[in-house]
Write a structure and sequence with these properties.
Elements (H helix, E strand, L loop, with lengths): L4 E2 L5 E4 L5 E8 L3 E7 L2 E6 L2 E7 L3 E2 L6 H5 L11 E12 L3 E10 L2 E15 L5 E12 L18 E15 L1
Antiparallel strand pairs: 1-8, 2-5, 2-12, 3-4, 3-12, 4-7, 5-6, 6-8, 8-9, 9-10, 10-11, 11-12
Length: 175
Amino acid sequence: MSTTIHPVRAGTYNLDPVHSTFGFAVTHNGVFSFRGQFDHVDARLEDGALVGTAHVDSVSTPIPQLKEQLLATDFFDAANAPTVSFESNDIRIADDGELEVDGELTLRGVTRPVTATGRYAAGTGMHGNEVVGLELEATIDRRDYGLNWQAPLPGGGEALGWDVTLEAHLQLVKE
């Protein structure tokens, strides 16, 4: 990150859900990343703080039958923890648009600090509204949040990686 740090634009920006996604990727069978996302996401950038929530029951993957297992207690435990949430406590934007966001991630009712990195851009949208875009990525160890399910592979190794990459692509529009 370059040495000059810029503040986030002042005001309140609300999520444009059509142009935003929040997803995850985890190594499966030790060979590739399996991806999923949450289809119902809320986010707001207000006076320099980013707050976001994903509704766990909106999880989707390329395998629709997997949803029931992901909502169960072995994974997201949707009955007891219906949302995944994030609240920033520091946002740093460099001259070149590089972005670092420190905050608290709550998953399965467990809150831990996390730093996401990525890109930031600001401009004017098609209808004349001010818009900002944030592309963020963070990697967490799922065991830190009680996601401990695992299965051994017949040839050795584990079916599911412990590290999960979280990816947020957010476009927010000024009120």
